[in-house]
Amino acid sequence: MSIDFEIPAEAKAIRKKVRQWVHEECIPAEKELDTKPLAEVLGPLRAKARARGLWCPWVPKEYGGMGLGPLANALVQMELGESMLGALSMNTQGPDDASMMTILAHGTEYQKEKFLKPLLNGDKRICFSMTEKAAGADATGMQTTAVKDGNENYILNGEKWFSSCASVADMALVMAKTDPNAPRHKQYSTFIVELPNPGYKIKRNVANMAIEGPHDDVIHGGHSEIEIRDLKVPADNLLGGEGNGFAMGQHRLAYGRLRHGMHNVAKAQRALDMAVAHVTKRSTFGTLLADRQAVQFMLADCASELYIGRLMLLHIAYKAEKGLDIRQENSIAKIFHAHMVHKVIDTAIQLHGALGFSQDTPLAKWYTQVRSQRLVDGPDEVHKWRIGKNVIKAFREHGTTASAAGGDLL
């Protein structure tokens, strides 16, 4: 009996359609951003995507999406990440997508109608405000509070930072402590906040090492430091009930990690394609770079990393389709893909020589951007700690680490 690694024909067809979309529409449209406002480029692109049925891939059809399951969505995301406009063109960009997923799963009918509908239509954007300086990777250390004011409102006070896309968001999911006496993971709740709001003040966008382009402040929205002072939120905007904020947040972040990994595969693939295109045209000392064994070895290493990365994501998608626990694999993949994309882009820069070091190609910009992948959605060290704990636990319980180290994949 063999294991079936065949991708269903329908999923292959969707992947092919999205791949053509990215290469024929999104990547060429990137060049227009040099001379046109983003709205003039993205608006027509989105209209064309919707007309072709390419909109909100994982969202159920009854909500206007494509209704794709985890496997087909993974295949789509591993194409979209090749272009900075890919995910945006189909309204599946982060951090909006994971927040839409959270409201879809936990929102009331009122919340779905008022907040989710405009997000799904692409009319509005949303950010996620959880991270705090005082807490960092330990979300249970957050200090922002939410105190009920009678039965109608909650009053929030505290601070957030690295709230991605807050500066371009029309609403925010804000996590705050509602019951300091509850068990550790039941102290927090999540609120939907309409923006702008005087109680939710963006103090600044935190400058970082990433090279920015002319529209990056809108496309990526920056990473904002937020001051929350006497922020009044209607009780009807409480999402998922009191005490469930932490669990919802972790589920939301889990998808974000996978989406980052999927887009990293796509970005790495484009970088490798650029490197191969260059070495098959460039000659030094009378020899084509592609004919040099050292260059071939470098390309082989990149291809190997991409192969492993794709298999990881497809296996996780398979387990998600079956409703199986993916937490261990998700943490492993989060670490692997963050390093993989950095290595492949670094190799592509090396093979381009001085051209790669310049900003005449997107490689230098990508290099500074992807370094963040080892920090976002929990730094490497936190995930390694969890993975290691699970490996030890598996050995103590079963006398082998197989179930926690890939030896018991299914």
From TrEMBL:
SUPFAM superfamilies referenced in this protein's UniProt entry, alphabetically: Acyl-CoA dehydrogenase C-terminal domain-like, Acyl-CoA dehydrogenase NM domain-like
Domain Acyl-CoA oxidase/dehydrogenase middle, chain residue ranges per copy: 127-213
Cofactor annotation: FAD
UniProtKB keywords: FAD, Flavoprotein, Oxidoreductase
GO terms under cellular component: cytoplasm
UniProt key word RNA-binding: no
Location of the Acyl-CoA dehydrogenase/oxidase C-terminal domain: 243-391
Single GO MF descriptor: acyl-CoA dehydrogenase activity
Name of the molecule in the record: Acyl-CoA dehydrogenase
Organism: Bradyrhizobium valentinum
